[in-house]
Amino acid sequence: MLKDLFNPDLSSLQKENKILQRQLASLEEKERHLSVINGFATAILQQHTVEEIAWTITREAISKLGFEDCIVYLLDEGK
User: What average pLDDT does this structure show over 7-26?
Assistant: First the structure.
């Protein structure tokens, strides 16, 4: 009985390992998303005009998210 405490079933360890690997993959994906968001925010905060912000968003979306193209539309509130 004491032997079973120190020698757990191999299949249960493998199952636990798979669960932990899935959790790790999920956390790594979340970390990547947060890193991209942080990069966007940091880049935007360094801009001074609406045009600079729009170009920064476009450039960041293409490079960080792998987009082929990105368009930012600005609302003309005067119309």
Answer: 88
